[in-house]
Model the fold of this input.
Amino acid sequence: MLTRLQENPARPGMWLGTVLARLGALPGRLLAYARDRLGTPHGAARAVAPHQVRRPPVLVPGEPWTDQAIAELAALPPEHARCWEELLRHALALVASRPAKKWRTRARELLDALGADEVFGRTDRWLATFATAPPGPANEHNDSAVRGLLWLRTVAPEENTSPRLLGMVVASALAGQPRRTGVAGAAVHVLSTVDSEPALVEIARLVNRISHKPTLRMLDRTLAVKADALGISRGEIDEIAVPRFGLTATGRGSRTIGDAEVELVVEPGGVRTLWRDHNGTATKDVPAAVRTEHADELRELRAHIKDVNGTLAEQKARLERLFLEHRVWHFEQWRTRYLDHPLVGTVARRLIWIVGVRACVYYEGRLRGLDGQPVPARASDDVALWHPVDYDTDEVLEWRDLLTEQGIVQPFKQAHREVYAPTEAERNTELFSTRFTAHILKQKRFHAIATARGWQNQPRSTMDMSCLPTVRELPEWGLRAELWVDGVGDGFDVAATESGSYHYIETEHIRFYPLFAPENTAYAAGAGYAPWDDAHDDLTDPLPLADVPPLVFSEVLRDVELFVDGASIGADPAWQDDGTDGTYREYWNSHSFGELSTAATTRREVLRRVLPMLPIARRCTLTDRFLEVRGDLRSYRIHLGSGNVVMGPDDQYLCVLARHAKPLGGELWLPFEGDRMLRLILGKALLLAEDCAITDPAITDQLR
Done:
């Protein structure tokens, strides 16, 4: 019968009326199903006499949280269950984006009747199930119930509202397909009404973790309002909203589970756990008693560690963005928010800072300069993040040596950061840079990298009449950087998706404009960018590159090179076999084995320091463009830019994917985190040096 209902959606009222008349008393599950599938429960129900229909359940079963709620309410005494049903129906009655006064008044009455502690204790469990269950198909009726349950929190004291739970609901609602934007919007609205530090922390966390633009705009507006109310900048909100996660010292915290104790140690690679059993004896693994008797607490601990690791990654990215945010702090403010913060301090203490007029880094319990002596600091001193563009090469090399001596692993490239100065060609063109022109990038990968680094990008589609360039706004400098890109169709299957998105894009010029200059647009496939507003010709010319601050120029070009290194088809070792007609084979070869980029040149210098530490050091030789490895079967050359491999004696191409490379393990010291290609090259070198031990046929077939 359910199948017939699905197959005959036309005239649903007549169909459902016939079914009801034949059944006499329709089971609630079927009517709930009909409500969900046909969307006309009220009109259909009128086809049957009231005494023939049992009142259906308020929620549609089939989702983990609704199944849990239905089971809990079924176990309640009838009178109590009716009160809950009335509350849920009132939640469902909220159809507007925000509740009216009448809805709030009735909600407060129902809360008083049932008791706020019971209501929020029970609904918190349901919402937690909603937030933690694997993403599944959305149900509009149930989503309306979730929205109403979320809005109930606005008529109760703030202590009944968990900002963390609201944040989990937002993230979960946006994780599946299609996104449950109504639920996410309601949770954000409710979160914005909570005036507490945990709510501020959760909003800032969500800004860094979600990508849904309408929700992000809501969160940004909320943060702007809260920043204005506190009289601080938007950037300061990000600083004061970093949670401490119960850490009592920089990078350390502990908790007791049963008779055991676990210490959490935040290291560059993430959180490490140190366990002690009931006798205080250190154990390598979780004590058996904890696993068997405290499984829920252990599960919560693992979720906590995952949360810490996620926030740690966000803070590394945030601190790297400070290079272009031009931030300066008073020393005491900086020490509280950065140096001595239990979580952020684990990142900040591995960076070089300018305190007053001296550069320093934290080790041996003090801020110390290049000479190893403590740097005196006063509360009135200003603090800024050190950048190599402001220093000569000799001093930069001294900092690299010091960090190596002290074994300091920087959270991102700072002392080893690439510096980009205008070339002779750029001085000749004056208004734009062609340094990264004519690269073929995978559009999906490019979009992911660009947006993660703060650029605004509009994916190119064959359906687009016009597109904006890929843009990085720099409000602190009053500038806007533009990377011009075009969709690529020649030699490729143009439409990657049903929407007609291009598989590939091609890079063009890099230009700089005043922040509020009229926008440039072009056809997605490239017909020349031009300002959309011809009435402001005086503002549409790009700025001369000589007028762009050196730090801004360097960081913008570094970002673009990251796009190329990370998204170019030349960085894909399997691209040659993608079935195309070879139109871009020459480009693939030149990128895979050609001259090194600035980032690859830095990688070569790091390898020069690291190779002697490897067990295969005697089998390795570093040349201008390659790491050469001598195996037992063949010799190999690994390109330092793309990581692609050719093997002797005739430079035959060897396809070695990332999954084939050997893991480096935690014992190998590298001077900074984040260079995935550096780790990949080393992993391939470790694999190929022992080529006799390779058993994967995907490689052995090529070797033989």
In short: Residues 1-54 have pLDDT under 50 and may be disordered. The longest helix spans residues 295-325.
